[in-house]
Each structure stands twice: as C-alpha cells, then as structure tokens.
Amino acid sequence: MTYYTRLSNVELLKIIEEKEKYQPEAIALVNEILAQRNFTDEDESQARSEINFLLNKKKEQREKIDNRKHRINEFIDEHFGLRERTPEKLLNLFCVAIFFYSLIVGFFSIKDLAGYFNSKIVGYIVGSLVYILQLLIIFLLYKRSNWGWVCYTGLYVFLAVSAIVSFISYFYYKSEFPFIRGNPYPSLLSFVWCIGIVLFLNNRKIIAQFSIQDRSRTTTIVVSILLSVFFIFFLSVLL
Questions:
Q1: Could you report the per-residue pLDDT of 42-84, keeping only the tens digit for each?
Q2: How many Å apart are CA 37 and CA 24, to the nearest integer?
Q3: Is residue 26 within 8 Å of 38, Cβ to Cβ?
C-alpha cells in the first residue's frame, strides 16, 4: 500500500496500462489511489508515451537479437550444417572439433610437457608455445593452407608411430620385467585414433580442398614416419 501511494500519477497510470504484468489486487489498489487523486489527460498521455517508448525499445532489442541469431544460424548452416554433407563442411566440423578438444586438453598437455624440464618456468613457456603452435596449425587447416594439412598430417603420423611403438614396447619389456605394470591398450586406441585422422585428411574429397599433389602427400607421410622413428630412437638412446 505504502509503495503505491508514493508513486506519481504517471507511474500509476503506467501500471494500469500494463495491468497484465500485475496481480488483480495490485491493479484494484492502484485504481483506488487514482480515484482519490486528480490526474490530467496530459498525465495519461505521458504514461502511454513512456510505455510505447519502452515497448519500441524492447522490440528493437528483440529484432537485433533475432538478426544476430539469424546471421549465426546462416553462418553455421553454410559452414557446418549437415543437411548437405559436403566435404567442405565435414572439414570445417573437423577443425572446430579438434579446436575445442585442444582447448580442453591444452592445460594438461602443457603441464605434462613442462614436467620434462628442470625449470618449471621454461617448461611452461615451451609447453605454451607448442600449444599455440598447435592452434595455429588448426587455423591454417581451416583456412585450407597446404602447410596446415602438412603439419597436422605429419603430427598425427608421428603420434601414430609413437603409440604403436609404445604398445609393442610394453609386451617386449614385459617379458624382461614380469612385474611391469600398466595397460598397453590406451596406446593401441591412440594409434587407431591417429590413423583414423590421417586417413580422413588423406581422403580424396578432403585433400581436393588443398593444392597438394599425390607426390607431396606421399612425401609428407614418408618424411613424418622417418622423423618419428629417428626421434624415438634418439630418445631411447638418451634414456
């Protein structure tokens, strides 16, 4: 009661104009207060004017939001929509998926990589640079840069070789150390996953989006395998 009596005539009239927003008891109370006051046509006109202004403002805001949603939906449908499963959209979806995956596991990857260095600061700097480089490669892949394809294919060839070597090494060293613990099958799963990505990137319809010749594609895979074997051998000698 006290709240409504403190309101001006215009504010009370605005409540009447928007009565669907209030309880019937509140509307009855406002009518009672207005009956005890003297309000002019100007007050009533001002109340309606302010309400119309607010309604128009809300309408404009809704239209802006709807336009943004429409543009976003058009962009998603054009680049990622699956109603027409074009190779271009599949590659775009792949890039988005690996981008978000990299964002999720990025912190843990940096932390694991930093553990190989004596200085945590240096380790985190190197890990962060590697993480940023990976995101850059994904961006280049999305932009259909040949370097993006070469780097990402080479990376997953390297990871596939590392995974299968890790899987084989488990059984080799287990015969020498019967009490060795661990599970080799995550390495096997990682190998299958990496091979799947390499095969996807080497699909004819996917690779046709890049200006890469068959010879360059073969060279990329062969060089990646050789570098992987060399790096693994070099690391095993150091350890």
A1: 776 777 777 777 778 878 888 888 888 878 777 777 677 766 7
A2: 20
A3: no
